[in-house]
Amino acid sequence: MARICASILAVAAALASTCARAELLPEGARSPVLTLYAAQISAERTWQKLLTEPGGRFVDAWLAACALAVPHSRHWNGALQLEAEAQAVYNFGAQHHWELNAVPVVARWQRFPWSGRFTTSAALGLGLSWASEEPEVEAALEPRTHETLVYWLAELTAGPRDARWAASLRIHHRSTAFGLMGSDGGMNALGIGVRYAF
């Protein structure tokens, strides 16, 4: 646990150092980006299983998400872009409730060896998640859960070189963040969607 906390602090310090050398985007370049995606909730308690066993067990619970992001700075000649994102999510299937997620920090890497042929990005974001009621599926997968939890996302996108749109593959994750928000709770969902830059 101490190593995990030390790693989180090291990443936070590196991000703070990067932000200090930020190239702030002018107002005209801060065009919003809309991502629409649908996801299915995994029966696995850890997000790592989504990566190691992508065809693993899922439950009859789904979510539809509308995420609006605004880029605010670029770093390393545009390779890294920082964004802030807000999400409205509806859960359906085995549970029915709304979820609102605020993700003030999304770090998106945009430079790859094949970037001249098509556009790709990889993103990680961290924030908070609030559910309009205690999620039934989370309470069934864990001993108990909470309406408010830590939220993070991981996303890969790919699309045509000069197009405004790209396909999106996302991990949608709610958790207690190693006990920060309680002893139990959370879920993992794997989703696909479309990201569109205005």
Written description of the protein model:
- Strands 2-3-4-5-6-7-8-9 form an eight-stranded antiparallel beta barrel.
- It has 198 residues and is of the alpha+beta class.
- Helix content is 15%, strand content 54%.
- The chain is globular.
- It has one domain (2-197): Porin.
Give the helices and strands, then pairings.
Elements: H1 2-20, E1 23-24, E2 33-42, H2 48-52, E3 58-75, E4 80-93, E5 97-109, E6 118-131, H3 136-141, E7 148-160, E8 165-175, E9 186-197
Antiparallel strand pairs: 1-3, 2-3, 2-9, 3-4, 4-5, 5-6, 6-7, 7-8, 8-9
Tell me the number of strands.
Answer: 9
Model regions low in confidence, pLDDT < 50 over at least 5 residues = none
Radius of gyration: 17 Å
Counted up, domains total: 1
Amount of helix: 10-25%
Order of strands side by side in the largest beta sheet? 2-3-4-5-6-7-8-9
Which CATH C-level class is it? Mainly Beta
Question: Terminal Cα separation, in Å?
Answer: 42 Å
* CATH architectural type: Beta Barrel
Kindly state the mean pLDDT as a whole number?
86
Hey, roughly how much beta strand do the residues contain?
A: over 45%
Task: State the order of secondary-structure elements, H for helix, E for strand.
Answer: HEEHEEEEHEEE
H/I helix tally: 3
Here the CATH topology equals Porin
- Tell the overall outline: globular
> Helix/strand/pairing class, anyone?
alpha+beta
Main beta-sheet annotation: 8 strands, antiparallel, barrel
